[in-house]
Design brief:
Layout (H helix, E strand, L loop, with lengths): L17 H28 L3 H25 L6 H9 L3 H29 L8 H20 L3 H29 L17 H13 L5 H4 L8 H30 L2 H6 L4 H46 L14 H19 L2 H31 L3 H25 L1 H27 L1
Helix pairs in contact: 1-4, 1-6, 1-7, 1-9, 1-11, 2-7, 2-9, 2-13, 2-14, 3-4, 3-13, 4-5, 4-11, 4-12, 4-13, 4-15, 5-11, 5-12, 6-9, 6-11, 7-13, 7-14, 9-11, 11-12, 13-14, 13-15, 14-15
Length: 438
């Protein structure tokens, strides 16, 4: 007889193929990145925004080095949580930074959900968009929750098919956008918009990292991927390379079909705006449907990975856990908690602030990963200390530029991020002290 009240986390070995892992990574990256970040990066960096995408790819390339080395040595369903535990032990440092990663990924889900709402509404002439965008986002999160209840095999099949449709559609958009343009010229800022600056470029580069950070979802399914010691690293590298090529193509298509002020004005749906001058209403419909597919696939993939990460933290006894009367395993409970947090963020935060919180949390965690490998594990995982030092320096540069711009333009979001980190740190310190006392 099956024990329906079994609370043990269940990780099915060999339940995700290499292709399925790549689909999970690209699903999150492409869903969040090119659809919503282009306009926000243009708003900060001005005419330098295409270069900011390239700079973000370079930083992520150095950043991925630590994750590939760690995943080859320690494939785990907990991914980043396990990497931090290997570097720092089961203590406050591990718990704090693992939760920063968890919340940054939940924030990314909300970012995807609101992007879904923004693009969907481009098909309709409706008022009160401020209410409809979060409403549609909430609906998508609930749909993704139901898909995730169905198990790994359905998630892999869903993500794989969505990934193929999405990549094919976005490449088609980029090729048509480039070929159909009257002139091949990148916005230079002469028609308006912010002037280029070093701080703005660095801040936009930090935002661009959000377009690539989805590769970390692969690490959270390490023990479930076939031949994990080889395939986790392969999936990370292939996912990043695919996205670099796609972002370069689509970013070029947007830049040569819209002026800088037009990109900024349509920052939450810039691809849909770029499709109109290329292919009229048919282009708009095609792009919006593509965005709907991409964001839906991204959220399904992200929830799958994030809930497993929180389940691993619970199993490691690094975070408090309550069943709240729910039946089933811990994984099912963490799935519920993850979706509920995503629903709250989707309902009450706009895209710009969601992205800002996500990148601050992520970069702080990312620096901790690199430092842990550099300080404690470089010999064990055979990592080059010079590459690790460069990765830390690039992260600090991007984070510093981003904070500088946000302190000037939106200090509230910086205050919320700092307050959030202090609350997480204090809460974890109290929990771990209480656990040791018990």
């Amino acid at each position: 007889m099956v024990d329906h009240d079994d609370r043990t986390p269940q990780y099915r070995e060999n339940s995700l193929s290499l292709i399925g892992a790549i689909a999970l990574g690209t699903g999150v990256m492409i869903g969040a990145g090119i659809f919503a970040l282009t306009g926000q990066m243009a708003e900060i960096a001005g005419p330098l925004f295409p270069l900011a995408f390239i700079a973000a790819a370079v930083i992520v390339g150095f950043s991925a080095y630590s994750y590939v080395k760690m995943s080859n040595a320690f494939p785990s369903a907990g991914g980043i949580a396990m990497y931090l535990e290997k570097a720092y032990g089961k203590g406050l440092t591990t718990a704090f930074h693992a939760l920063l990663m968890y919340f940054s990924m939940v924030i990314a889900q909300s970012f995807l959900a609101r992007t879904f709402g923004s693009y969907t509404l481009q098909l309709f002439d409706v008022a009160n968009i401020d209410m409809l965008v979060p409403t549609l986002g909430v609906g998508l999160l609930l749909f993704a929750f139901l898909i995730n209840l169905s198990g790994n095999r359905l998630i892999e099949e869903f993500a794989s098919w969505i990934g193929l449709i999405k990549i094919g559609g976005i490449v088609l958009f980029g090729v048509v956008g480039v070929l159909a343009a009257d002139t091949f010229s990148i916005p230079d800022g002469s028609g308006g918009g912010p002037e280029a600056s070093i701080s703005g470029f660095l801040a936009a580069t930090a935002l661009g990292i959000l377009a690539f950070k989805g590769f970390t979802t692969i690490t959270n399914s390490g023990s479930e991927i076939t031949d994990p010691h080889r395939n986790v690293g392969r999936a990370i590298v292939i996912s990043i390379l695919l996205c670099v090529g796609i972002y370069a193509l689509v970013g070029t298509a947007v830049a040569i079909n819209l002026s800088l002020p037009e990109i900024i004005e349509s920052r939450d749906y810039s691809l849909a705006a770029a499709a109109r001058p290329v292919a009229g209403e048919w282009g708009l419909w095609f792009t919006v449907i593509l965005a709907i597919i991409a964001t839906a696939g991204g959220i399904v993939a992200s929830i799958f990975a994030v809930s497993r990460m929180l389940a691993m933290l619970t199993e490691m006894k690094l975070v408090p856990h309550s069943h709240f009367g729910m039946p089933g395993s811990i994984q099912k409970h963490t799935l519920v908690y993850t979706v509920v947090l995503g629903l709250i963020l989707t309902a009450f935060f706009d895209l710009s602030r969601i992205a800002s919180l996500g990148i601050i949390f992520y970069l702080v965690m990312d620096i901790a990963i690199h430092w842990g490998v550099l300080r404690h594990l470089h010999r064990e995982v055979k990592a080059n200390r010079g590459i690790l030092a460069v990765a830390i320096g690039l992260d600090l540069l991007a984070l510093g530029g981003f904070l500088w711009v946000k302190i000037e333009n939106d200090p509230l979001v910086v205050a919320i991020a700092v307050a959030g980190m202090l609350i997480i740190l204090a809460g974890e310190a109290l929990f771990l002290r209480h656990r040791r006392t018990d």
